[in-house]
Recover the amino acids of this structure.
DNA sequence: AAAAATGCGTCAATAAAGCTGACATATTTT
DNA sequence: AAAATATGTCAGCTTTATTGACGCATTTTT
């Protein structure tokens, strides 16, 4: 039976040595992003649970508040999900009175999306704990540092 | 019918004005985190698709590689999911030869988890595009800036 | 004016990934 | 001997997403 150190070591032998990659890959920051995001979304998740809503509802409410009048197509593009995934979530938000649809003034096929006051309140309530968490993470940071972090996050996006 | 500007405005009237919150909440960075993470996970997602694996598999392979010998309980704590959610994913990874289990030397109830060489290769293949993306986001940044970003991400975590 | 494309809603079927709760087994601790 | 622990497993369920197809109203193109 080949040992791990053999050149013919079976690919199925367990490896006990820590991962070596000659420092090519920074696993630490990959993990940091994972943990940061996991906890970042845990705050609104708890609030949403009470109303029977989920993360998807949060995203929709957030973006409609940020850009009132955006269309369904805009939202699909932003969230990178399919029309059918959005449909259920959007319907629930409309039925619950958080979002309203208005036919587009120029192109009447469009359904422009607007928050109601309740929708705006919800978006703020969800953003509040996230904002507090961000402030805590920036504690003692200079304005330049804040800008650096924002630049980094912008750089993480796929440019379209 | 009450107008939007009325003090009695119905909570269900659509609001066309942009969200005003006296600058209390920084929506920009909330969005930046959303977009950054959305694109950050899109790279491995594409690779995983080909093997019929999902994000959950990625996380397991990643952490087992990072800390060979971790137990099932460790993994549950790290991922903050339930035993049953992990079970299926872990079983698939073991059956596919990416991860092996070994009874703990001291406590033989434990199942210590180790990557195989194939598991290590997979973890690296998944981390590689993420690493490239991070490097791109850090392009031209100083070592101090990198540290600032890491400190920020650490600060975003819930301290346990 | 007719044809094609677009924006949206909806239906049906399906899958991935998580959940709860209960219970079994082996092992270690008390 | 009894209790606690680490793990595995079973059954059933929910949420969130998927693909593909189709219909309707409207706008754009021919």
């Amino acid at each position: 039976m080949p040992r791990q150190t053999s050149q013919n070591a079976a690919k199925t032998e367990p490896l006990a040595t820590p991962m070596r990659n000659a420092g090519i890959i920074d696993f630490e920051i990959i993990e940091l992003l994972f943990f940061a995001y996991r906890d970042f979304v845990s705050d609104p998740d708890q609030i949403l649970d009470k109303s029977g809503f989920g993360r998807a509802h949060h995203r929709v409410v957030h973006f409609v508040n940020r850009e009132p009048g955006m269309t369904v197509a805009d939202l699909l593009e932003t969230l990178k999900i399919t029309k059918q995934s959005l449909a259920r979530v959007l319907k629930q938000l409309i039925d619950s009175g958080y979002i309203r649809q208005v036919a587009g003034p120029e192109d009447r096929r469009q359904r422009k999306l607007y928050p109601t006051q309740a929708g705006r309140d919800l978006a703020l309530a969800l953003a509040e704990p996230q904002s507090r968490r961000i402030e805590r993470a920036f504690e003692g940071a200079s304005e330049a540092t804040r800008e650096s972090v924002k630049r980094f996050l912008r750089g993480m996006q796929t440019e379209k």
